[in-house]
Specification:
heterodimer; A: Alpha-Beta Plaits; 11 helices; elongated; B: mainly alpha; 12 helices; 73% helix
Chain lengths: 297, 266
């Protein structure tokens, strides 16, 4: 599989502050790639460098295996931070300017306005839009040239829950069309729901990169019975338990993903303990993310 | 080329500030041109004499061939109105982050500079065409005996006005991009135009050295014509040396603009 973009030692200093520190990673084609990181971790700076608007202090990057140029950027739809348009122009005029820049023609302006749900307000000036509508126009602009790569930096900022759900559906639909999506966010939940790959940045350093399911190597199971002590003793004899904790009268057991839950329950039954509560709690990206951050801090 | 013209046209088409400032510019040019005659007549009525020989009201300011240099010289003072729009246009691109978004969308830095040059040429050309037709009409109405030779003579000051305006607007473009803030950029432009350079130039003796300063060089394209009415010798032609200096400054400013955009985080 070809890489859409690859970076090599990308670094950005602002005076003495190192915003991005020797970043080397690549993004495979047709992936939905999440870039996670707390505020100020260098997500936007990294994307800015890849989009030719932030000058790297050192390091380089390649788009589609080539030295970056404006042609490669024309194949990318991007939103960086807040939506940026000419406030006195209508949505249609703003999109016309982008269509001119991308050598695209005006034919699909109506279509992207319909997809993002702002077609009815297409002739109003951008400054009259609510934040949610501005975000939608930004997404419409990113979709305009039917790009093979989409870069979305916090695309659901300022949207209501309904809007967030709609944008998520749009992103998933686009991903199914075989496009590559790079999604920077601090909303873990968002990344987990749509991404196939992700990387974690902290203080400008890449501290993790991989597939979403690669990190799901543990599962956590909640078990309870009438006699918690007896259950606890019994569980200590079960091989393969990574960790065990008691929360009130519920015992949390961490197991490798490959261990079947049925194995555990059969084991307990064999010791004549009746289970009153059993839940397989899949480890959320959020807890993994916090763990990754803590490990590397 | 067509693409960058389109981009800039979409931006200005529904921009109220553009239409207000360009109409203001045209209106004031016309007003000032028409009021010269009234001004001279009032001088005459009050008994002032520009020299012992001439009655101010009899000065042929509106007659071919003198009119071309007269109106080009006077209209050049009003270039600041268009410079205001150029500064607003470039600083807005920075304030709205649209420059950044356009580069991200695949506009090259050279194309961006090109689109702003389209704006500069459009403003200069519109102003020049307007001045030319104003001059033509006023000249025809005021010249007692029309001769083609007189109408063409000195009309070279009209393209000189175009070059002067273009150079000044590129200068404004550079200041706006460099300073980033609208008010500050306008303040600096006026401070430099009205005080800094005139004061420096004033302290220099040699006309030749004076002419090396950018704004002085721009203004040298159209020398003050009125001295001839009190029988002083004036420069009634556009000097090649001045054209070359102005072109050199245009190239220098554009290169500086390019470097700014190349090196700066947008």
């Amino acid at each position: 599989m070809n890489d859409v973009v690859s970076t090599n030692g990308l670094t950005k200093n602002y005076g003495r502050i190192q915003a991005v520190n020797h970043l080397t990673f690549s993004i495979p084609q047709n992936s939905v790639f999440g870039i996670l990181g707390p505020n100020g971790s260098g997500k936007t700076t990294t994307l800015g460098m890849m989009l030719n608007v932030v000058r790297p202090s050192s390091g380089s990057y390649l788009w589609f295996g080539e030295e970056p140029n404006e042609k490669s950027l024309q194949k990318i739809g991007s939103i960086l931070e807040s939506p940026s348009f000419y406030p006195y122009l209508s949505a249609v005029d703003n999109l016309r300017i982008i269509a001119e820049i991308k050598h695209n023609g005006y034919h699909n302006i109506d279509e992207v306005l319909k997809i993002t749900g702002i077609f009815d307000r297409r002739h109003s000036a951008f400054r009259t839009y609510s934040l949610g509508m501005k975000q939608r126009l930004a997404l419409a602009a990113a979709l305009l040239s039917d790009p093979s790569v989409l870069i979305l930096d916090e695309p659901t900022n300022g949207l209501d829950p309904k809007g967030i759900a709609e944008i998520r559906i749009i992103i998933k639909t686009i991903a199914q069309q075989g496009k590559t999506i790079i999604l920077a966010s601090h909303m873990l939940d968002e990344v987990q729901k749509v991404c196939s790959h992700f990387s974690v940045l902290n203080k400008g350093q890449l501290i993790f990169t991989g597939r979403i399911n690669e990190v799901n190597e543990e599962q956590i199971i909640e078990i309870s019975s009438d006699d918690v002590h007896q259950l606890h003793e019994a569980l200590q004899k079960f091989t393969g338990i990574l960790k065990m904790e008691t929360e009130g009268n519920i015992i949390l057991v961490a197991l490798p993903s490959k261990v079947q839950v049925s194995e555990l329950s059969r084991f307990i039954f064999a010791r004549n303990i009746a289970i009153t509560h059993l839940v397989n709690r899949k480890k959320s990206l959020e807890s993994q993310f916090l763990e990754i951050l803590n490990e590397k801090a | 080329m067509r693409r960058i013209i389109h981009i800039e046209l979409i931006k200005i088409r529904s921009n109220a500030t553009f239409w207000i400032l360009t109409s203001l510019h045209a209106g004031i040019i016309l007003l000032v041109l028409l009021s010269i005659k009234f001004f001279l007549r009032s001088l005459s009525l009050e008994g002032h004499m520009i020299s012992r020989i001439a009655d101010p009201a009899a000065i042929p300011v509106y007659q071919f061939p003198d009119i071309w240099q007269n109106i080009a010289y006077i209209a050049a003072y009003l270039k600041f109105i268009l410079a205001i729009y150029v500064i607003i246009s470039i600083t807005n691109e920075l304030a709205y982050n649209t420059l950044r978004q356009n580069i991200m969308n695949g506009l090259s830095i050279k194309d961006f500079i090109g689109s702003k040059l389209v704006l500069v040429f459009l403003l200069s050309l519109a102003s020049t065409v307007f001045l030319f037709f104003s001059g033509l009409v006023i000249g025809i109405l005021n010249t007692p005996e029309l001769r083609l030779h007189d109408m063409i003579k000195y009309s070279g000051f009209i393209p000189a006005y175009f070059l002067l305006l273009t150079a000044y607007l590129i200068f404004a473009l550079m200041i706006g991009l460099w300073i980033k803030r609208t008010g500050l950029a306008m303040g600096l432009l006026f401070l430099y135009t009205l005080f800094v350079e005139p004061l420096v130039v004033f302290r220099i003796g040699s006309e030749w050295v004076k002419g090396l300063f950018p704004l002085k060089a721009f203004n040298n394209l159209v020398h003050m014509p009125f001295g001839k009415y009190i029988l002083r010798e004036i420069q009634d032609y556009v000097a090649v040396k001045d054209i070359l200096i102005v072109l050199f400054y245009c190239a220098l400013f554009l290169y500086f603009i390019y470097l700014l955009l190349r090196r700066r985080d947008l």
